[in-house]
């Protein structure tokens, strides 16, 4: 879902970059306080895993492929704001080194694939912590729903940005983007649940969510 | 943390190096929609991307496309890990310990 340069008007690119920069800036601030020394490498590892998994396009219907986005995984592991930072690192390297996703569109890509997913999943985790039992099943359920929603909401935002830019009418692009991404979102949910399950088995203390919190100082509350 | 970091990073590098050459090469969701709705050709590279070191996830100067993709994945995964690590380390250094 990487928007190249030329798809968005400058106004839309800037309007998307503002919240993206704010969220990443807040993520940097949270990196000062949220991560104890032990968890510093986790951010790099999460970013590396997301980069790798984004390369693994899987086929969906009709000569189309989808790939993992990763904001939901990052939000479950690191919280919503560090998730924005992780996706900004991945998307910036992709844009500058691999020419994947535009440079002026970078803010929009961080917004669509990082901020929206981080905020959606962070909000769901916060609600789940209050409403759902503190079990592995509840965490994985929230993870699955959140991952799917993150992709679908990101695709909808992308469609709206393209429409406001005058690139393609909303009535044309919105159903098309939603139609394919409701399927791609299932792949996102499956990969995210698999990755979170693997972390739950090996290092449950790394989950930033409604799991037993072993060291109170290590896991500050979501805000 | 150390063991988890090493194992998780090894999994990421393995996926990017050995599995990515076999990933689907069909256009992704947005690309396909852009193709179908006839706005794909509006996309263009930014001037700084014309000299991109590894354009389109194919390491330059390698004939075998699978090897070129795998090597791009290997280098990219390590690079992303390094950038992520440095960004966080730099952000944390701003606070007096």
List keywords for this structure.
A: Arp2/3 complex 21 kDa subunit ARPC3; 7 helices; B: 97 residues; mainly alpha; extended
Structure, described:
The complex is a heterodimer of chains A (223) and B (97). Chain A has 223 residues and is mostly helical. Chain A has seven helices and two strands; from the N terminus they run H-H-E-E-H-H-H-H-H. Chain A has helices spanning 10-34, 40-54, 71-78, 80-98, 106-131, 136-164, 170-202; strands at residues 58-60, 64-66. In chain A, strands 1-2 form a two-stranded antiparallel ribbon. Classes of the chains: A mainly alpha (223), B mainly alpha (97). At the A-B interface, helix 1, helix 2, strand 1, strand 2 and helix 4 of A face helix 1, helix 2 and helix 3 of B.
Overall tally of domains of chain A: 1
Q: What is the average per-residue confidence, as pLDDT of chain B, rounded to a whole number?
A: 93
In the CATH hierarchy, the third-tier topology of chain A is known as Arp2/3 complex 21 kDa subunit ARPC3
Q: Characterize the main sheet of chain B.
A: none
Strand proportion of chain B:
under 5%
Characterize the main sheet of chain A.
2 strands, antiparallel
Unreliable spans of chain B? none
What average pLDDT do the residues of chain A reach? 92
Termini separation of chain B: 21 Å
Percent of residues in helices of chain A: 55-70%
Which oligomerization state do the chains in this entry correspond to? heterodimer
Report strand % of chain A.
under 5%
Name the chain pair whose interface involves the most residues.
A-B, 72 and 61 residues
Radius of gyration of chain A: 17 Å
Pattern of helices and strands of chain A: HHEEHHHHH
| DSSP strand count of chain B | 0
Q: What is the number of E strands of chain A?
A: 2
The shape of chain B, in one word, is extended
CATH arch. level architecture of chain A? Orthogonal Bundle
Largest sheet: spatial strand order of chain A: 1-2
Element-level helix/strand string of chain B: HHH
């Amino acid at each position: 879902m990487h928007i190249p340069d030329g798809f968005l008007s400058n106004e839309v690119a800037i309007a998307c970059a503002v919240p993206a920069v704010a969220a990443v800036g807040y993520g940097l601030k949270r990196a000062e306080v949220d991560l104890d020394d032990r968890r510093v490498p986790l951010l790099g590892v999460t970013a590396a895993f997301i980069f790798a998994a984004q390369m693994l396009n899987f086929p969906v219907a009709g000569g189309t492929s989808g790939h993992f986005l990763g904001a939901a995984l990052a939000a479950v592991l690191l919280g919503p704001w560090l998730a924005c930072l992780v996706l900004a690192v991945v998307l910036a390297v992709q844009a500058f080194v691999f020419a994947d996703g535009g440079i002026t569109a970078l803010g929009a890509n961080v917004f669509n694939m990082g901020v929206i997913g981080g905020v959606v999943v962070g909000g769901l985790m916060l609600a789940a912590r209050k409403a759902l039992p503190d079990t592995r099943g509840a965490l994985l359920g929230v993870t699955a729903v959140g991952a799917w929603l993150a992709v679908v909401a990101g695709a909808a935002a992308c469609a709206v940005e393209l429409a406001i830019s005058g690139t393609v009418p909303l009535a044309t692009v919105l159903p098309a983007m939603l139609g394919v991404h409701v399927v791609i979102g299932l792949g996102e949910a499956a990969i995210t649940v698999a990755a979170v399950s693997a972390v739950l088995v090996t290092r449950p203390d790394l989950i930033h969510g409604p799991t037993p919190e072993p060291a109170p100082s290590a896991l500050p509350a979501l805000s | 943390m150390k063991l988890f970091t090493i194992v998780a990073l090894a999994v990421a590098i393995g996926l990017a190096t050995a599995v990515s050459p076999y990933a689907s090469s069909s256009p992704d969701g947005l690309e396909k929609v852009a193709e179908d709705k006839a706005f794909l050709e509006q996309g263009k590279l930014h001037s700084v991307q014309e000299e991109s070191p590894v354009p389109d996830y194919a390491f330059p100067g390698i004939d075998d496309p699978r090897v070129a993709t795998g090597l791009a994945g290997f280098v990219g995964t390590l690079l992303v890990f390094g950038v992520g690590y440095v960004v966080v380390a730099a952000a944390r250094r701003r606070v007096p310990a």
